[in-house]
Design goal:
With 56 residues, the chain is an alpha+beta fold. It has a domain of 28 residues. Helices cover 21% and strands 18% of the residues. The protein has a two-stranded antiparallel sheet. The longest helix has 12 residues. It is a peripheral membrane protein. It holds the Pfam family L51_S25_CI-B8. This is Ribosomal protein/NADH dehydrogenase domain-containing protein. InterPro entries: NADH_Ub_cplx-1_asu_su-2 (IPR016464), Ribosomal_mL43/mS25/NADH_DH (IPR007741), Thioredoxin-like_sf (IPR036249).
C-alpha cells in the first residue's frame, strides 16, 4: 500500500484483539474512520481508495 502511494503518508499499526479500522486525517483537522471488519481484500482496497481520493 505504501509503495503504491508514495506521496501519501500512510501509517499501518498491528494490534492483537482490536477491531480493524482505517482512519483518514485531512486538512483543517477533519478526520474520518471506517470499520474494516468482515470486508474482503477488494472491499478494503475500495474503502482505502475512497479515503485517499479526496486527499489528492
Amino acid at each position: 500500500m505504501k509503495r503504491s502511494n508514495p506521496n501519501i503518508p500512510i501509517l499501518i499499526r498491528e494490534a492483537a484483539g482490536t477491531q480493524p479500522k482505517v482512519f483518514a486525517r485531512y486538512d483543517r483537522g477533519t478526520e474520518t474512520a471506517h470499520s474494516l471488519e468482515g470486508l474482503s481484500d477488494k472491499q478494503i482496497e475500495d474503502t482505502v481508495t475512497g479515503l485517499v481520493q479526496p486527499a489528492q
